[in-house]
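Sharing a chain and its predicted structure for anyone who wants a worked example. Both blocks are below, sequence first, tokens second.
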Amino acid sequence: MPRSPALSPRAAVGALCLLAAIGLWTPTAAQTPPATPAALQSLPALEVPPYMGTWYQVAWFPNRFQRQCVSDTSATYRQRPDGAVEVLNRCRTADGRFDEAQGLARPTGRLQGSRLEPAQLEVSFLPAWLRWLPVGWGRYWVIQLADDGRYAVISEPTREYLWVLARQPRLEAADEADIRSALKQQGFGDASRLQMHPHRAP
């Protein structure tokens, strides 16, 4: 196959100028790497007692350790006198039965009375006798919280995992739009990963 004749440096520059003039090339387009999002931030503080009780998982980034959960996923939190939080996760499986997991959440920020600063915990579902190990603890950061506490958004520094929790089994369309908009501002680029999670009557 015959080779195309090489352009002289002057001709090459002229060709690029022509492409730039008609909008087919910009000098920086091939040189600018995609922007890296800033480090994820949790809320600066969380009032713990109002956060306790039952939450419904209404949306999430699907993950492998909840793959058995097809609907009706909820989390119930109860604070202990030592500041740790007992966790009961519950979901419906494909055969219609409920699967439950009990865990423990402990503050990683400063617990000042009823206020956690920042809104960061770590959670383990290991058996109680294994929780002294430095492994098996997942980060639980509250990154969004509605003014009246009707929904909360949970993630962790890598942005790999995300859950939207609500006090009711369904999320209002306006709340979903607000959450998605805030996630974009928080560096969650692929909004299609967020999937709604169904709830049905027991």
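Comments welcome. The chain has one domain: 46-196.
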